[in-house]
Design a protein that fits this description.
Blueprint lengths: L1 H8 L10 E5 L8 E4 L2 E11 L8 E8 L5 E7 L3 E5 L2 E10 L4 E5 L5 E6 L6 H11 L4 E8 L2 E9 L3
Length: 160
């Protein structure tokens, strides 16, 4: 029954493109992306254990939400199907930050977007990006996208 529930939570979306791909719990390794409790996480620890005389090996998986850093854990039989979030990493040039901390970003094709917001009060990386931008530095930012969420994760200074 639990498997059916997982599938409902991870319903896939637009134009046949999937937010997740299946992976066997026994194949999860440290450093891979994995969906834990419905959240896209990076695995930070995985251990397997045998249970009882007729039991199955179980994988105990610990991951950190790639957007919030919150810790999630799950235990599943190693033969159980879990899901990996499809994570897309993009780089943009930071053009402007408005009064509400929305960023004007430009990709390498010259397309712009203004739908991502910095949270400098709660995210030290975002605070540093705003500080560097306000100091006149030319920056590129890295945006991670997974499971219909996106966030600016880091920045690099451009040396013109």
């Amino acid at each position: 029954m639990a498997e059916h529930h997982d599938l409902e939570v991870l319903a896939t979306g637009d134009a046949g493109a999937s937010d997740t791909v299946p992976i066997q719990a026994g194949s999860v390794k440290k450093g891979v992306y994995i969906v834990l409790k419905g959240q896209p996480c990076k695995c930070v620890d995985v251990s397997t254990s045998k249970t009882g005389k007729h039991g199955h090996a179980k994988a105990n998986i610990v991951g950190l939400d790639i957007f919030t850093g919150k810790k999630y854990e799950d235990v599943a039989p190693t033969s159980h199907t879990m899901y990996q979030p499809v994570v897309v990493r993009s780089e943009y040039q930071l053009i402007d930050i408005d009064a509400e901390n929305f960023c004007s970003l430009m990709d390498d094709k010259g397309e712009t977007r203004e739908d991502l917001k910095l949270d400098p009060d709660n995210d030290p990386v975002h605070a540093k990006i705003k500080e560097d931008f306000d100091a006149g530095k030319h920056l590129t930012v890295v945006v991670l996208k997974a499971m219909k969420q996106e966030k600016i994760m880091q920045s690099k200074e451009l040396n013109d």
